[in-house]
Amino acid sequence: MKKIIILIIICSPIFAFSQQNMEGTVRYLVTHNWAKKLMAVEYLSKQQREKSMYMWGNRSEWKEYYLMHFNLNESKYEESEEKAERVVETYNWRKETFFIKRNYQNMATHEGYEILGKTYILEDSLYGYDWKIQNDLKEVAGHICMKAFLEDTIKKQKIVAWFAQDIPLPMGPERFHGLPGLIMELDYNDGAMVISADKIDYKKLTAELDTPKKLKGKKIKDADYQTLINKHIAEKTKSEEPWFWGIRY
Amino acid sequence: MKKRLLPFLFLLCGISLSAQNPSKVSIKGIVQDTLGAEQPFATIMLLNPKDSALLNFTRGDDKGAFEFKNVKNQAYLFKISFVGFIPFQQNIEPSANPINDLGALKMKPITKELMEVVIKTAKAPLSIRGDTIEYNASSFKVPPGSTVEDLLRRLPGIEVDADGNIKAQGKDVKKVYVDGKTFFSDDPKAATKNLDAQTISKVQVFNEKSEQAKLTGIDDGKKEKAMNLELKEEYKKGAFGKITGAIGTEERWASRGNYNRFNKKEQFSVIGFANNINQTGVNWDDYGEFKGQNTFNGNDNGDFGFNSGGNFMWFNSNNEPFFNNFDGRGFTKNYGGGANYNFDNKKKKFNLSYTYNQTGLDLDQFSLRQSFLQDKSFFNRDTTDRVEFRNNHSINSRYEWEIDSTNRLIAKLNTRFSGNTTEGIFSQGFKNDLNTNANTRYLNTQNNNEQDAHNLTSSLIFRHLFKKKGRSFAASVGYNDNASDGTENLNTLNQFFQATTFTEQIRQLNIRDNATRQTKSSLLYTDAITKKWFSESFFNYSNTKNDVNRQVQDLLKNSERIDNLSVFYDNGVLYNRLGTSVRYSHNGKNMTLGVAAQQIQLKGAYSIDRDMPLLTSPLNRKYNNILPYLSSSFEFKNNMYLSANYSYGIREPRFNDLQPIPNVNNPAFRTDGNPDLTPERFHNISFNINYWNPASFGNLGINLSTELFDNQIVYNQFIEELPNIGIRTTTKPENVAGGYRHNGYLWSSFPIIKTKLTLNANGGVNISNAPSFINLVKSETQSLGFNLGAGLTYVANDKLILGVRANANNTDVSYSIQKNQDQKIRNNSLDGNIKWNFIDKFFFESNYTYNDYKNDRFAFDQKIPIWNASVRRLLAKDNRIELRLAAFDILNKRVNIVQTGTQNFVTQSTAATLARYFMLSMTYNVKGHESKLKKNNNFF
Question: Fewer Cβ in 10 A, N or C end of chain B?
């Protein structure tokens, strides 16, 4: 069924709508709130969660930029070189392997991750999500967006997506896609992490959509990826430590 | 026509004909506005009517027409979304026809006002329920102090007349709820006229059954407009706290409590404690709750240096007396309390706290010290009996202002008043041979000591980020002031059992008055040379003035001043440092290479008293040094971090050590100053590896560091046997090369069975060489220390956690002047603990530690087993009450033992402290206690 949705997009009058310049880059501002991430951790008592909120609350936020390059059929989500926070930098972190490349025509995905210290290359067909459409409208970066909702039962995340009514691309940041419009904003667990588009740059792309040439890593399928993540979350939860220190939130 | 007919047809044939419905259907229609104009390119969705799950979607063409071809023939929630229109929604049932033509679908436009005001200007999400629209009121800016009524006037679709009557979508609002509850009275204006607009997050307008319908229970179908005002999260106040009272055997008692109130912007907390169970202050957990968001403040150090940190610190203002700092010796009675206030609205952060604590200490200590000379050794046997009272009042404040995105200001002001009164009896017996009872000398001192101190530290730090990326500037100024004055009343009996036995009595009054004032300032400039290369330059200045006045009066001679013990000195330290460095930072590789030029100027003038002629010509020393600096860190794949650092350090001599006048407080001990001292210089090299494996939960850390002294300040001793006095030790600070300290440390933790059994292990080695001159002969004291520890934690299940641990601590000290006096100091321990939730809400916790302190040369071997156990039970709603019965040191064996060996002596001291007692405590926790065993404490 989910695959059908995607097929429909491909075959629907989207092409009639398409403009010449349906190609470019979306910049997403990603805001992490560490204390709020802990708020959803079940093994902590309410008191412990409130205490961490009390001690860290406002000071536990940090921001970064991500980019999503797109054309009519493809998208690629990756970290931006640009720093979202202006601080005096005295340390530069190692850049991890990370990209999510989608081809909506072939319904194929090609992703690169570092999970628990190992590099994995995921190549598989594209799986969809069970979005629930809700009746709320909001503006994100100049586009009126509609609300969609999703619950990740393994990561214990309530995810709200705002998709543009006027950009008919089924794409979105992180692994999310499959809505009738471009996902402009994702909100995990009420502000624990917010990915919000702040700029869309329509431009002719050159090599931005290409995946890295030299890629070393274990080749896996989507099911392997899920198994890896589920296992880690289960183990971490059992030993009562946050899982999101080791893998992407 | 067709449009109207379809649903009608469904009603007619619905269920009976459903079997004959085609399995696939095509759904089509045309999107129009209310005026019938076609709306192209709208998004059309088919949702599951049960949960609104998205099943299918398409897009209208340029004429507004759309068609879903061959979709499953089932009930759908049909939805159209289009910019500028209220989303269109309609239930459609399984179709009897293979083509289900919905005809023209008319969308209502969202009023321009709502679009412009709510969505574009206020950035508020619109929620649509049927035809009703709800939005977020918090986005509407109203002046501070405005009422909800003022806010409502600004909301599109809501009208408020002069009397305050409210209309929503043209209808009267009959009821106003606040957070779903009636606000004081049924009058809708009660809430809107009285509540502050800033407390409101959402305004919801909805239809409600009429009062009459509610009263009669008969739904007359009449609906009235009602409004709900939802309060902002930050105005939903929170509070937590707990209070404990405990009584025990041996007259032991304890109580403590804390209470915190907070909202999103403000935090207020109070804390208090009182006990006689050796808790002299608060623990880390309590402190974190007390200080709240002000527990940690990063980048607060105005003393800029290499990598913007540096160790240019003259006053240690972080030395927080409010913490529990009991050192294991003696008996204490403690009282303390404090209040803390934090304000934080992201732009401005303010913290103010006051703390008070006092400790009464009762100490009985016994220590034995053996000192070595080339050909012999001698012993001191000391007993100390001390009663001490100390107290502290501290006021700390901090203000951080983010002026704008490029400018930030931090101001800090801390002040502390502390007092200390000590009454002590100290006796010291000197022996040449431990096995004989005869002392060569016996010293008995009774002293009363009183001191009051006042301490102030303040600083102002400003940071500016330039437009150019990587370019920044920071400046800081600071003023610190320390003053203390005190008196010491000494009554000493010095008995000499030499050729002729005689007794000397000393009665002195020692009046001290110290004042230190410091002004300082630092500048820092960083710039990006390229994307990966950066430069940093800094300048530090500080000027410290230090006045010390010590006047000693002889109470046996009409309080006459004792000139050779009284001294007044007036010192100044002028410190300047200019440094620069280049840094490479890219993709986990960070390297800094820098150099600094440093000048320290010391000035000192000595006289017997203030306004008396100088005793020696004023001291004036200037030390110029060039200091290199190198640091590097590398981050590898697989979570491995490696860093290596080198720095060259300079520590200027202390004034006490430079003082050209000897200190002869005690005829058997003489301290000489050395005006020719030069600063200590040392190389500091360190190397670190950290590795963690998030998949296996394994950790490994290795830490190697070494300090090589080019020039070390050591205290040389000259020990002579004088007629009458016996052994006299003269200490003089001098510069010596060749000292070193090497440290290696390794720790690891990894699961043997994941989530069940974890092994922790650590090991360390310390090698040091401390050269000094004993009676003009170079003595090298080599110390070789090993420590090893290993422990297992077993989490059997959620109810039972067990742990065992063994530690071995060996120190071998060898003295070059007397090889046969080499010491082997051993401190070993074995530890076992259990946490067991044996019945619901009942917990048993116990730990047993077996310590063994050994030193073969003294034939010292003390084994101390310590066993603690407690049972607790949770009671009341939400487990708010905890009852706990605890037994401390069940075997009644606790004493405090410290063994050390350095330079030319080895010391071992034993102090009595709190041993066996039983205690019953009750804790009330506002939020309730944890009802399960905690596997981890590191949840932050």
Answer: N
